[in-house]
Specification:
The protein is about 30% helix and about 30% strand. It is α/β, with parallel strands linked by helices. The strands form 2 sheets. Strands 1-6-7-8-4-9-10 form a 7-stranded mixed beta sheet, with helices on both faces. Strands 3-2-5 form a 3-stranded antiparallel beta sheet, covered by helices on one side. Helix 5 (about 160-180) links the parallel strand 7 (about 150-155) and strand 8 (about 180-185).
Length: about 220
C-alpha cells in the first residue's frame, strides 16, 4: 500500500533512496548494523539473504513503517509497497480496494486494473480471486499512485512456477512502462538475477551488507 515517508529529500539530482543506518535492534537484540545504501532513479535493487536476516525490516525502514533505528533514511518522491500477503479489503470490491487505499479516482483505478488484466473484475470482491489475481490487484494498487519508489517484499512467494513467471513478466512490464525505481526483497537468487540491475546481499549477525554487485544482464 502507498506510504508517506516523512524523511523526504528534494532536488533533481537526489537519489530516490538514501540510507545511512547505524543499527536496528528489537528487544535489545541487534538486527542490522552499518548499512549504507543509495539507489538512483530507474534502478531495480534486489535484497537477498537467508530468511530472518532482516531484509523485511530494512524494507519497512525504507517505507517509513519502522522508526526504531539509529540513522537516517531519505526518499525522494512517493513510495508504494507490495507486501508478502496482499493485505486487501475483503468487504470492498477491487476498484474500491484501489481508490480507498490510494485516493485515486475510480477511472484511474479502472485503468490500473486493466493494466494487470483485471478490467472485467472491478466489481468483484477479493475472496473471489485466486492468489495470483490477488497479487495482480496488489500490483495495480501500488502502480496506481505512480510511485517514485516501489518496495516489494517477496511478492511472488507461494505461487507455482508458471504463475510466478507470469507475475514477474507483468511486474517487469509495469516497472518499465512507469519507469519506477524498485527495491525487491527475495531469498531466490534466480528471481533476483531475472528482475534486478543490482543485487545487495545481507549476511552476518547483526546483518550488514556483504555484497553489492551488478546483476547479470537481463535479456
Amino acid at each position: 500500500m502507498p506510504q508517506a515517508n516523512p524523511d523526504v529529500e528534494t532536488g533533481a539530482d537526489a537519489p530516490v533512496l538514501a540510507l545511512a543506518l547505524n543499527h536496528l535492534s528489537f528487544d535489545g537484540k541487534p538486527i542490522l548494523r552499518n548499512i549504507h545504501l543509495s539507489v538512483p532513479t530507474g534502478q531495480t535493487v534486489a535484497l537477498v539473504g537467508p530468511s530472518g536476516i532482516g531484509k523485511s525490516s530494512l524494507l519497512r525502514i525504507f517505507a517509513g513503517l519502522e522508526r526504531r533505528y539509529d540513522g537516517s533514511c531519505k526518499v525522494h518522491g512517493r513510495t508504494a509497497m507490495v507486501f508478502q500477503e496482499p493485505t486487501l479489503l475483503p468487504w470492498r470490491n477491487l476498484r474500491d480496494n484501489i481508490t480507498i487505499a490510494t485516493g485515486v479516482s475510480p477511472e484511474q483505478a479502472n485503468t490500473a486494473l486493466a493494466d494487470v488484466g483485471l478490467a472485467d473484475r472491478a466489481d468483484s470482491y477479493p475472496n473471489r480471486l485466486s492468489l495470483g489475481q490477488q497479487r495482480r490487484l496488489s500490483l495495480a494498487r501500488a502502480f496506481a499512485v505512480e510511485p517514485a519508489l516501489l518496495l516489494m517484499d517477496e511478492p511472488f512467494v507461494s505461487l507455482d512456477a508458471a504463475i510466478a513467471d507470469d507475475m514477474m513478466r507483468l511486474f517487469t512490464r509495469l516497472r518499465d512502462s512507469h519507469q519506477v525505481t524498485t527495491v525487491l526483497v527475495t531469498h531466490v537468487m534466480t528471481e533476483a538475477e531475472k528482475l534486478a540491475n543490482r543485487i545487495v546481499t545481507l549476511a552476518g549477525d547483526p546483518a550488514t551488507i556483504m555484497g553489492d554487485n551488478t546483476a547479470p544482464s537481463r535479456t
